Amino acid sequence: MSQSLSLTQTRYTISEVAARTGLSQHTLRWYERIGLMPHVDRSHSGQRRFTDRDLDWLAFVGKLRATGMSVADMVRYAELVREGEHTRGERRELLERTRREVRARITELTDALAVLDYKIDMYAGTR
Q: Could you report the per-residue pLDDT of 41-65, keeping only the tens digit for each?
């Protein structure tokens, strides 16, 4: 995933990324440490410098988190991305499995919502 960056590309400090994403600086450092974040460039003084591409990745990771995907699976997905195009099939399988799990949870929540609606209507005297 290494790509040469233009000198004019916007770079963000960890505090700016925390403010933009709602993630704590601790979480951002942890993501990098466990391999969930690709390598984050550093300034000459050692400060992390995130790019728009990093922000896009973090937005995607946020969606994966919202699905309930385990951290281990998210890290595995990130590893597969770094390994290259030959891992597309395995990445797709991982996402398809997650989609099946999300759909099952949606069905379960829809059923639970129907029960709640029934009970609320009952208490409101409309049933």
A: 898 898 999 999 999 999 999 999 9
Q: What integer pLDDT is reported at residue 2 of this predicted model? A: 46
- Helical residues (DSSP H) of the chain, grouped into ranges: 14-21, 25-34, 52-67, 71-83, 88-123
Contacts 24+ apart (CB under 8 A), 60-67: 61/31, 61/36, 62/21, 64/98, 67/98, 67/101, 67/102
Q: What are the residues whose beta carbons fall under 8 Å from the beta carbon of 106, sequence distance 6 or more?
A: none
Question: How many angstroms separate the CA atoms of 90 and 112, rounded?
Answer: 33
- Compute the half-sphere exposure of residue 106: CA atoms within 13 Å on the CB side of its CA: 8
